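Agenda item 2: adenosine-5'-diphosphate complex prediction
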Amino acid sequence: MNIHEYQAKELLRSYGVAVPAGNVAFSDSQAQAVAEQIGGQRWVVKAQIHAGGRGKAGGVKVADSIEEVGRITDEMIGMNLVTHQTGPQGRVVKRILVEEASDIQNELYLSFVIDRATQRVTIVASREGGTEIEEVASHSPEKIITETIDPALGLADFQCRKVAAALGMNDKTRMTQLVRIMKRLYRCFRDKDALQVEINPLAQVAGDKLICLDAKFNFDDNALYRHPDINELRDLEEEDPKEVEASGHDLNYIALDGDIGCIVNGAGLAMATMDAITLHDGKPANFLDVGGGASPEKVTNACRIVMEDPNVKALLINIFAGINRCDWIATGLIQAYTTLNIDLPMVVRLAGTNVEEGRKILEESKLPFLQADNLDDAAAKAVATVKGEQT
Ligand code: ADP
Ligand code: MG
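Presented output:
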């Protein structure tokens, strides 16, 4: 789960990490009130969407007067911001952050992320922070520093100093600040079960002060149950509405861009199904994982959510029942077919617990389910129906 920049900064502030004074606003008058409260002569107005790359796309603007704060906010709220991270459809801006403008001398990159290869939290840092970090990583990977943290020992001081020195922060003032920032970020990361925290830029400003000008968090969804404070920050408007609806029914939905809607159980089977469809020259439109113990109601909800995607031209139901039961899945499919008035081809591959009963239920229903013997057969049939429809 992601949170907004202003929420990330509040979290960092509560851990004693330096961030600019600022606050969220939903309207121009609110934004002006925030600017007045902060004081000073220059402010930055920043679009709050769950995507980076805003600076280059017009989502970060400097204002030199309270009036200008209002004017920029008025332009920004309601605009469709397209950045290299939003995809071509962009994101509508609904809230902005007004904060004090810093006088930047130098921009660094600092992040903590779980490295799946080593299975450890790793610091990733670079002297070349700012908006071009992706280019630095691809063109000059030697400019990226990494440091792996041992979970039993925690983040050691010498590791922080090593990273700080590699970032050119050798003098006492900046070294002390950076070590403190890293330690606090790591504590926050661990406390909140984050998957990533990214500060870009971590800026050096007047008086050799280090301050986080942009902050991004990603939290482990599976650990949210023990972080109600974080879960509360969830902005459902920033998420795919179908994914939100699916999670409300305890289903996992992933939107893709093809035309075969897939209902499966388990992430592994989802991957295998995608591979099989691709092998037969087809493209999945989405994936819906019904998980274990799928009741007929859950299957009906699954069909409804998958079919809400207008690109879907056929459904492929691929269930390998262990905890699930094929007869329940079959009953659910019939219920879905009749209650939802499905007029798309439905290819069904059932295997595992109660498979004979499941197949019999489908056959006896006399509804036009296309039964498949195995995964390969199912993918071939689904692709063939879609291609047949198009010609
Ligand atoms: P994004 O990563 O989405 O482009 P950032 O928050 O990193 O957005 O802002 C882009 C750039 O704008 C930063 O690299 C920094 O140079 C500048 N910037 C952001 N916030 C401030 C601020 N409070 N004061 C001065 N400059 C800022
Ligand atoms: Mg940034």
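Discussion summary: The first helix runs from residue 5 to 14.
Owner for follow-up: CH.
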